[in-house]
Amino acid sequence: MGFRKALLAQLLVGLLFAVAVSAFAADAHERTQFGRDITVNSGEEVSEVTCFGCNIRIRGHVAGDVTIFAGNIVVEDQGEIGGDTTAFAGSVRFEKGVKASGDVIVFGGRFYRDSSATVGGDVTNFSGSAWLLLIFGLPLILLGAFIALIVWLVRRLTRPAVPAAA
User: Fold this and answer.
1) N or C: which terminal CB in the chain sees fewer CB atoms within 10 Å?
2) Are 109 and 126 in contact (CB under 8 A)?
3) Which domain holds residue 68?
4) What percent of the residues of the chain are helix, what percent strand, and what percent coil, each to the nearest 5?
5) For the segment 98-152, what is each residue's pLDDT rounded down to a tens digit?
6) CA distance linking residue 42 with residue 76, whole number of Å
């Protein structure tokens, strides 16, 4: 049951972060969504794309970064990304003719690239869920242990004194 509570807490924090990011999106050409897929169509240009709990499909041009949390990024049909491509708990797929100028970073997913797709920066792929557990689970476990220590200390210090038996 403790794992479910920790997962729920992580999702709530992610939701609050997503709402905050959506509220402060400054440019009309930026796309930020929570739970709704984003598609950049052929001939369309967008400055930045960010998605929480959804998927991104790019057929056009993204001038800046593409970031996703808990979803997948698919770039197809001569799609272009001018900045970095980052996926947390999701996969990235570059199909035929794709050009990405920046780095590609994938945590907890896989990176698929067609032989004709080009990446201008470095490719970093931490596949598997162990990385996600390390990045998100370990801090929550440490926080839980710290709270348990404080509760234990408070209970111990506020325990009434028991008279010794005669």
Assistant:
1) C
2) no
3) 2-128
4) 30, 30, 40
5) 999 999 999 888 899 999 999 999 998 877 666 666 777 788 889 999 999 999 9
6) 9
